[in-house]
What does this fold into?
Amino acid sequence: MVTQEQPPAREHELLVMNLEAGLAGVVPVMAADREEAIRLYERANPACVVITGLAPGD
It folds into this structure.
């Protein structure tokens, strides 16, 4: 069986807005890449929308 090696997780800062509360802020999320960080955050927080992914060096 061949397994694919996962890239190491790193911190991605996401600028998010909570639609119910009308509040925005920066939230750190550990993930392999920015797209995965956005998917993970939106799945875990359905009342929130990711405005942008902020990551140094991207």
